[in-house]
Amino acid sequence: MINNQIKTTNIRNLVTGGAGFLGSHLIDKLMRANQEVICLDNYFTGNKSNIKEWLTHPNFEIIRHDVTEPIQLEIDQIWHLACPASPIHYQENPIKTAKTSFLGTYNMLGLARRVKAKFLLASTSEVYGDPKINPQKESYHGYVNPVGIRSCYDEGKRISETLCSDYQRIHNLDIRIMRIFNTYGPRMKPNDGRVVSNLIYQALQNKPLTIYGDGTQTRSFCYVDDLIEGMQNLMGSNTDSPVNIGNPEELTILDLAMKIRKKINPNLEIIFKPLPQDDPLKRQPDISKAKKEIGWEPFTSLDKGLDKTIAWFKKLLNEK
Ligand code: NAD
Ligand code: UDP
C-alpha cells in the first residue's frame, strides 16, 4: 500500500489497540511523521471515529482482529496497547481481560520474534497494586492481590511484563516496558468510567459528582500529549527494563473533584459512593529513571490539561 506521491520513512508500525484512547493519539503522531501504520483492534473499547482522519490515507491500514488469536504481518515495530484500561471495562469480562493480557502479549511477542520487530508493552502503574511506598520507583515489586476484582488486569500486566522479559532473555528480543500512570485527555469516552472523564462529563451535564470512598485516595494525572511523547522516547531509547511514565503532580480525588467543579460549576453537589475493592490508596510515579535514561518529563500542568479536556467534552456534548 505505498503510494509514491506520499512521503514515507519506511518504518512499518503495528499499533495494537490503535482505535482506543492512547493508541489513536500515538497513531496521529506516527502518521504525522510520515511512518506507515497498521492499526489492529477488536473495538471492545475503541472506536473507528478516533482514527477517522487516517482511514483513507495510503500509509494507513486497519485490521479488525483480536490479539488473543495469532496473526502474521510484516512490520518493524510493535506498540502493544490492546487491553481495556478502565476498571469497569476490564472487570466486565475478567477472564477475557486475563486472556488478552497473557495470550495477546504472547501472540504479539511471537510475531515480533518472527519478523525481528522492536516491541513496546503498554504496562501500567497497577503492577504496583496498592503500593506500600510512595512515590513508586521501578525497583519496587508491588503489593498486589492475586485473587481480587482488579487482579485480571494487575496480574495480567505483571505476566505481560514477565513474558516480555523472558522473550528478551531467551530469544534476544528488543523490548521496552512502559509503566503508564493515570492518563487523561481528549478522546476518553464519556462512559469510560475513569475518574477524570466521569467528573467532567457529570459536571458539564450539571449532575452530582461521584466520589468513591472519602476521596482521600491520591492519583497523579498525566496529559495524553506528554504521555505519547514519553512512549516515543522510550521506543527510541536503549532502555530495555521497565520505565515509569506519568506526571508526579499528586492530588486527592476530592481535590480533583473540587478543581473540576470550580472550572465548570462551583454549585454542583458532590456525592460519596462505596470505595471499590482493592482501590489503591496512593499513587505517584518516581520519574527519575525516565528523566535520566530517555530524557523525558511531562510539561502540561493539571490545570492546562483539564482545560483542554473540558473543551473537548463540551464539543462532544454540543455535537450530540
Ligand atoms: P482503551 O480502552 O481506550 O484502549 C484499548 C484498546 O484496545 C481499545 O481500542 C480496545 O478496543 C482494544 N482492545 C481491547 N482488547 C483487545 C483485544 N483482545 N484485541 C484487540 N484489541 C483489543 O484504553 P487506553 O487508555 O487507550 O489504554 C491503552 C493501553 O495503555 C492499555 O494496554 C492500558 O492497559 C494501558 N494503560 C493505560 C492507562 C491510562 O491511564 N489510559 C494507564 C495505564 C496503562
Ligand atoms: N473514582 C471516583 N469517582 C468516579 C470514578 C473513579 O472517585 O466517578 C476514583 C476511583 O475509586 C479511584 C480513582 O478515582 O480511587 C481513580 O479511578 P480510575 O478508575 O480513574 O483509575 P484507577 O483506579 O485505575 O487508578
Written account of the structure:
With 320 residues, the chain is an alpha/beta fold. The chain has a domain at 12-183 and 223-247 and 284-299: NAD(P)-binding Rossmann-like Domain (Rossmann fold, 3-Layer(aba) Sandwich). It is built from 9 helices and 13 strands. The protein has a 7-stranded parallel beta sheet, with helices on both faces. The protein has a two-stranded parallel ribbon with strand order 7-10. The chain has a two-stranded parallel ribbon with strand order 8-13. α1 crosses α6 and α7 packs across α9 (302-319). The longest helix is centred in the N-terminal third of the chain and has 22 residues, at 94-115. The protein is globular and about 55 Å long. The protein starts with 11 loop residues before the first strand and ends with a helix. 44% of the residues are buried. The mean pLDDT is 96. Bound molecules: nicotinamide-adenine-dinucleotide and uridine-5'-diphosphate. Nicotinamide-adenine-dinucleotide is lined by residues 17, 19-23, 41-46, 66-68, 81-85, 100, 104, 122, 124, 180, 182-183.
Key attributes of the depicted protein:
single chain; 320 residues; Rossmann fold; seven-stranded parallel sheet; two-stranded parallel sheet; 17% strand; globular; binds nicotinamide-adenine-dinucleotide; binds uridine-5'-diphosphate
